[in-house]
Backbone:
């Protein structure tokens, strides 16, 4: 695959799904379904917004529910091609075995974050679904950030976050309860606040939606503006956007948020309508949507 600097209207955004044995099926299938239906132009089937690739250690990987998924690339290939991807999605399930064995997807999580630290000229997103956030915590990604997980695993999540902070001598994670998803290091979009639909603060509730251009054009611009690069360089993780979704079906809501910021909100709403899913919004950490 040729090196790509940004996603534009006629170029799909490259997404890598990292699967492991006994992953939760809906953690994977829900976001995949959302992303596969997104189009830059809903009336033109050729304008596919996302190109999704599945990575696993073996050619076939079995879910906790017994469904076998065929991988398109191995983790070795995924590491070699990592710079091709704009988004890495880590799913939940079987996290104890991964923590014990220090196996994939832990190494690729760390490599993706390191890629952003070393190359802040790109806009990249790391997203976890359900207990996938426990793997992000173990990898040291969530230090100083806000994050969530499946509500039944909040105590486990807090312990892993705390242990990682002590191990790495980093700040603790602000664990958020009752959130469908939590977004950190949002997205770069320059301009006047009143004209920018993606400057989102807690005080923004009830604001009139802006008609300003957003989505893929902004995504393209954020990868080319000197101001955007400078801001990203000063942020945690080189400006890597980090999204953690809550339990299982919450991954679909987080995926819709991803569509809204990388394509546009109208497209996200159209996908939600088509798949007959009521989009429940999550928490966007206070500050510029960068």
Residues:
């Amino acid at each position: 695959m040729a090196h790509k600097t940004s996603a534009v209207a006629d170029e799909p955004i490259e997404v890598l799904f990292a699967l492991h044995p006994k992953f939760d099926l809906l953690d994977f299938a829900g976001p995949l379904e959302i992303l596969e239906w997104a189009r830059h132009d809903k009336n033109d089937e050729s304008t596919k917004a996302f190109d999704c690739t599945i990575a696993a250690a073996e050619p076939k990987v079995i879910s906790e529910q017994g469904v076998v998924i065929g991988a398109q690339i191995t983790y070795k290939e995924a590491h070699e091609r990592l710079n091709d991807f704009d988004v890495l999605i880590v799913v939940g399930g079987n996290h104890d075995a991964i923590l014990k064995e220090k196996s994939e997807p832990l190494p690729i999580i760390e490599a993706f974050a390191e890629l952003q630290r070393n190359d802040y000229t790109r806009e990249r997103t790391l997203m976890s679904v359900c207990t996938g956030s426990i793997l992000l915590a173990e990898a040291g990604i969530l230090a100083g950030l806000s994050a969530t997980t499946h509500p039944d695993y909040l105590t486990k999540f807090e312990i892993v976050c705390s242990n990682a902070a002590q191990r790495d001598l980093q700040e603790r994670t602000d664990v958020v309860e009752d959130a469908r998803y939590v977004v950190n290091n949002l997205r770069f979009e320059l301009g006047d606040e009143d004209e920018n639909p993606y400057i989102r603060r807690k005080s923004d509730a009830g604001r009139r939606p802006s008609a300003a251009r957003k989505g893929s054009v902004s995504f393209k611009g954020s990868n080319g503006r000197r101001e955007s690069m400078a801001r990203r360089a000063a942020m945690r993780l080189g400006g890597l956007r980090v999204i953690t979704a809550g339990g299982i079906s919450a991954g679909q809501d987080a995926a819709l948020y991803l569509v809204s910021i990388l394509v546009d909100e109208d497209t996200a709403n159209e996908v939600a309508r088509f798949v007959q899913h009521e989009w429940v919004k999550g928490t966007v950490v206070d500050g510029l949507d960068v």
